[in-house]
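Hi Y.,

Following your request, here is the sequence exactly as I used it, all 335 residues.
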Amino acid sequence: MNKKILAICDGESRYAEGLMEFMSEKSSLPFRIHLFTDRKCFDSCPDKEEIECLLISERLYREDPTVPGIPHIVILSESGNILDPTLHHIKKYQACESIYKELLSYFTKESSEIGKQLRMGPANMKVIGVYTPIARCLQTTFAMTLGQMLAKEHKTLYMNFERYSGLSELLRTEFRSDITDLMYYLECAKEKLVYKIDEIREQVNGLDFIPPAAVFQNVAGIKGEQWKELFEEIATGAGYEYLILDLTDGMLDLWEVLRGCHLVYTITKGDTIALAKMYQYETLLKTMNYEDVLNKTRKCRFPVFRCLSARFDLLTVGDMAAYVKENILPDVLGL
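Below is the corresponding structure, written out as C-alpha cells. Let me know if you'd prefer a different format.
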C-alpha cells in the first residue's frame, strides 16, 4: 500500500530540512515526507488530498489557521501557548528524536490508519538468550556488552527481564514507558506495535533497549507463547538483526523462551555451590525434555577481570569487552 504524506511546513528552512532528514531515516515511519518552507507553496500543493498529517510551525499556523481536509494537524509550538485546544502541540525546539517519538505516540493513539501501512522487515532476526541459574555473575554486564558491541555494525535490541534491573538508576534517567506497554499493544492493537516499539525504545551507547517493567508483577503472569509472539512481531516489523534477552528465573515459561532462542549463553563458575546449581539446572532440562536448549547453550566461565567499567554507557571498553570480542562475537556473527 502506498504511504500517505507527512507534510512539514516551517519557514525556518535549516530547521525544517534537518527535521525532514532525520524523519526520512526512520524506516518504520508510515509516511512519505514532503517539505514546505513557504505557506503559499503548501496551500497550492497538488497532492494535498494525500496528506495524512501536517506538522506546521506555530508561526505559519498563526498566519492562516484554515487547513481544510487534513485528518491530523500537529503544531510545532514555539511559545508554549496552546493555539487550538483541539489540535496536538509538540514543543518545536527539542531533539528531533523527541519530536519523532511524540509524533509516533500521537499516531499510535489517534490514527486508525497507521496499522494499514505497517512496514514488514526481514524475518531473519537472531535471538540471543543470556541466562544462568547462578546469582551475581555479571550476566547483565555481559549481555549489555554483547549488545553494545553488536550495535556498532548491526541493528540490535536489548530486553531485560530482571525483577529489579536498576537500569533507570544506573543510567540516571526516568523511563516514560516500559515493556508492559508493548504487551498491551500486542493484545489490543497489534497492528500498531512496531510504532510503539519505536516510540518507547531508549538507547545506550548505540544499543536500543526496551525499558524493563517498573513493577515486575505486571509481567510475571505472561506466558512463554506470548513472549515468543512479541519477539516474532519485533522480527517481522522492527527491522532488528539481533535481539538480546537478559533472562531471569522470574519469567513464566522460561524454558520455552530459551527454546525459541538461536543461541543461549550461560555463565558458570568453578566453586562447589555454582557447580551444584548448574548440575541441577542441566539435569532438569534433560528430565523435562529440553535437551535442545542444552544443545544450543554456550557456557562462559569468565577469567578474573581487572578492568570493568562501572558505567553501562561505556561497556565497549575494558576487560569484558575484550573477552566478548575474542570469545563471543565470532560465534554470534557466525549464526
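Residues 4-117 form a domain with the Rossmann fold fold (CATH 3.40.50.10850).

Thanks again,
Q.
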